[in-house]
From TrEMBL:
Main location: membrane
Source domain of life: Bacteria
Name assigned to this protein: Metal ABC transporter permease
Matching Pfam families: ABC-3
Keyword Cytoplasm (UniProt): no
Keyword Transmembrane helix appears in the UniProt entry: yes
Species of provenance: Campylobacter gastrosuis
UniProt subcellular location: Cell membrane; Membrane
Amino acid sequence: MVEILSLEFMQNALISGLLISVACGVIGSLVVINKMGFIAGGIAHGAYGGIGIAFFLGISPLLGASVFSLILALIIAAISLNEKSKIDAIIGAIWAFGMAVGIIFIDLSSGYNVDLMSYLFGSILAVSGADIGFMSVLDLLFITLIVLFYRQFVAISFDAGFAKIKGVRVRVFYYLMVAMMSLCVVATIRIVGLILVIALLSIPPLIASGFTKRLGVMMVLSSLISAFFCIFGLILSVSFDLTSGASIILVASVCFFIFYLFRNFR
């Protein structure tokens, strides 16, 4: 294992695992507190449309997924604020639309690109320097926004109606939160794939919520828990030659079930 750590791809995998843990810890806590898991799922699967368009145009899949996901996120945010009773059906339609667009554009692209599988199921071992740069910028952006507007995010997360009375621009911060979530989803896709992204966004915060009710502490604990899942899952993947994304989520799921059973037993 020591010899493997000296390899560049393994170092990139560890760094990216730690970086994405910070993003998932911060944004995942907001997702869980605001019960936005289904919205995150819609954005994650819809992002496949951006990946397909990117392959068709010959541009970076990360760029294509980011732009397409941001557009979908803003559409979903607008709909969820105005049509709450129909949000599940609408997100389901957007989810299907994104996947269909991605498949169509991939069909229209010349040849078959194996790298597409890494966006479906994740490949932390294939993370590049550009991916790490993207994750670093996102971490810095998320932390800065949370530090600057922590009280506003807490207010809209726990009592949006009271926050509005107090003068908080609820709609603006809701749009901002959904946009942050969409970018976090895109970054996380590279690690565990769009099929498993919701697990890494939700499981660490769910476990952290069993130890604290304060949002800031929850974000820190979620980041640490997520880092453990990524590192241990990566070790499991390399040791037994398993798919990295599935290994990380397997570790996270087993830990969540143990935590849930232990808490109920107590």
